[in-house]
Structure formats: structure tokens, C-alpha cells
Write a structure and sequence with these properties.
The complex is a heterodimer of chains A (55) and B (140).
Chain A: E1 3-6, E2 18-20, H1 29-34, E3 38-40
Antiparallel strand pairs in A: 1-2, 1-3
Chain B: E1 11-14, E2 17-18, E3 23-29, E4 59-65, H1 73-77, E5 84-90, E6 102-110, E7 125-131, E8 134-138
Antiparallel strand pairs in B: 1-2, 1-5, 3-4, 4-7, 5-6, 6-7, 6-8
The chains are: A alpha+beta (55), B mainly beta (140).
Chain lengths: 55, 140
């Protein structure tokens, strides 16, 4: 299930809320994306630093 | 005392986008197509009946101010032409109730849009007709 970030003040969800496809049932997601109301949400993963063991 | 409806702050949502502040007119048409069931022996025309269910043929018309700014009218509407969406209209903001019924037209089709409809010295407006779809009325 895709997740989207609300990027507009015109949706029922507050800006910066993360919603998913089920929240947008019966709505056209492509049109919302094109209109700038939502954008694909890509969760950021923390990067683990790998350190070489010292001899 | 009789009451009348004065719509000053209805809620208009198109494709989940609130466009109330751009809207100046809204019409919800709830229609079941008229099927004739007149038969021999009848003395008057008859339509429909307990065993005859016709198709809904609903539509919603709205008039909006045009705006090309981000997240406004044009950005919301342009991508909806030729596809189906949902439109929600209620007489007033707030939750659905018997005195504030919320009408939702699900799966309605927007055939056309006029991105530019402007005259000198006048605010640009657009009129949209959403056709088809199932109309539901929520009162709670």
C-alpha cells in the first residue's frame, strides 16, 4: 500500500500528514499528485556507520 | 413557521480537495431514470413500480472561481477531466446530521473543463458538470 505526504492545506488531513491509498478511496490519486496536494512518501532510513574493527 | 434555505457556507469537496472558498454555486441532481410500465388495461400512464428499479442518473454542477495558484482550482481540476472521482457537498460545515445532510457522489465523471474563461474586468469562473455515479446521503 503506497503512502503519501499531504502537501496542501485543502485536504481534510493537515499538511505533512502521511496517508495511504486506503485514505484516498474513490479519489483519483494521480490528479492529487499532479495538483500538488500530495506527494509520494518515502520514509528515510537511518544510516548505520560501519566501522572497521581495529587490529 | 416555514423555513427557507440560505446557503452561505456550504462545503464543497472535489476529489477530496476542499474548494468551498472558490465555489459560488452548487447543484445536486438526484435522478432515477423514468421507465414506463404502462400495460394493456391501464387507463393512465404508469412509471416505475415496486418491482421496477431503474438506473440512477445523477449529476452535480458547481461554479468555481478560477485560480492558477498552487493547490487551487486549476491544479485540482485539470487532472480530473476524462476520469471518475468523488464530489461531496453539504449545506454547512460540521458533521453530518438530519439538518446538515452530506451528499456524496461517488464515481462521477468530469467530461470537460474550460481552463480559460475570462473577460476583461471580470473574475474568471468555471462551471463543472460531474455526471453519473452513485449518490448517497449521510445524516449521521
Amino acid at each position: 500500500m503506497s503512502k503519501y505526504l499531504v502537501t496542501s492545506d485543502r485536504l481534510i488531513w493537515a499538511r505533512d500528514t502521511v496517508i495511504d491509498t486506503a485514505d484516498l478511496e474513490h479519489s483519483n490519486i494521480d490528479a492529487l499528485l499532479a495538483g500538488g496536494h500530495i506527494s509520494p512518501h518515502k520514509p528515510t532510513k537511518s544510516v548505520k556507520t560501519i566501522t572497521e574493527p581495529k587490529d | 413557521m416555514a423555513t427557507s434555505v440560505y446557503l452561505s457556507n456550504p462545503v464543497v469537496t472535489i476529489n477530496s480537495v476542499a474548494l468551498t472558498d472558490q465555489c459560488t454555486s452548487a447543484t445536486v441532481n438526484y435522478v432515477y431514470e423514468q421507465l414506463e410500465t404502462t400495460a394493456f388495461g391501464d387507463t393512465a400512464r404508469k412509471f416505475g413500480g415496486a418491482a421496477v428499479t431503474s438506473l440512477q442518473n445523477n449529476s452535480i454542477e458547481v461554479e468555481l472561481y478560477q485560480s492558477y495558484a498552487a493547490s487551487e482550482t486549476e491544479a485540482t481540476i485539470f487532472g480530473l477531466v476524462g476520469i471518475t472521482t468523488n464530489v461531496v457537498i453539504a449545506p454547512a460545515s460540521g458533521s453530518a446530521s438530519a439538518t446538515n445532510p452530506v451528499y456524496t457522489l461517488t464515481g462521477c465523471y468530469l467530461e470537460s473543463h474550460t481552463p480559460i474563461n475570462a473577460s476583461l474586468g471580470e473574475l474568471s469562473t468555471i462551471t463543472l458538470s460531474f455526471a453519473g455515479g452513485v449518490l448517497t446521503k449521510a445524516v449521521a
